Hints:
This protein has one domain (about 20-255): Ribonuclease Z/Hydroxyacylglutathione hydrolase-like (Metallo-beta-lactamase, Chain A), CATH 3.60.15.10. It is built from five helices and 14 strands. The chain has a six-stranded mixed beta sheet. It has a five-stranded mixed beta sheet with strand order 1-2-3-4-5, with no helix packed on it. A three-stranded mixed beta sheet has the order 10-14-13, with no helix packed on it. A hairpin with a 3-residue loop joins strand 3 and strand 4 (about 50-55). Helix 4 (about 170-185) packs across helix 5 (about 225-240). The protein has helices at about 65-70, 90, 105-115, 170-185, 225-240, and strands spanning about 20-25, 30-35, 45-50, 50-55, 80-85, 125, 130-135, 145-150, 155-160, 165-170, 195, 225, 245, 250-255. It is of the alpha+beta class. Bound molecules: zinc ion (ZN).
Amino acid sequence: MASFPDRWDDGTTADGPDHQVHWYDERTVIIRQALHTNFEGPFLYLLIGSERALLLDTGTGHANLRAVVDELLAGRDLELAVAHTHGHGDHVGGDDQFDRVVGRSVEEVAAFFGITSWPDEIVTFDLGERVLDVIPIPGHQGSDVAVYDRETRLLLTGDSLYPGRLYVPDWSSYRSSIRRLAGFVAAGNPVERVLGAHIELTDRPGEDYVMGAAEHPGEHPLELAPETLTELDEALTAAGPEPRRLVHDHFIVVPR
Length: 256
Ligand SMILES: [Zn+2]
């Protein structure tokens, strides 16, 4: 039975472990790097198939998440692929802990997943009896991808949609990407929950923690309803081509 934890380690247990592991179901793991190791407190995802596993992101590098992943996969004879939702430091910082990691450039990401027409082409990535769809969504960083898991219907969106500050340096690309992602969902790929890579909102609508806060008492849940993607798409469409700060209950768009 798939589930989310009642609460994540929000930094208020500063002497606790450097990570939190949650088995969403028997083949899906959500890992949070503890806030006390780094204020970003990023979330990582481990998706397990019958032939290989995919780890999305490696954290900031301030926690030994390789040991965590090794333990999670112990006893399974699986190839591990390590890729990223995008190439920012808080998601690739642990790369050197792993043996083989997909590079951070558009060219390397496209080559690994077999995307020949970036960013318009959506491709599949087969873990063995578990097919993922990989959707290029540049705009926040440049080599951003979203991952849709057909089995759980979870949509992993990295830093492009999560309950927090969505930084957008490339407004035009970001609008197009969210449009394409919403279109992918509307075209017959139903979403159970949208999962990003951070929590930066409190449990009060549209209210964020200060940048760099060491503790997050009363965090917004990690998981977002699928309607939140629709809401973001419509907000970006309504905002038009000029970058604008958009404060919504479950996300804040911050042009850069
Ligand atoms: Zn990030």
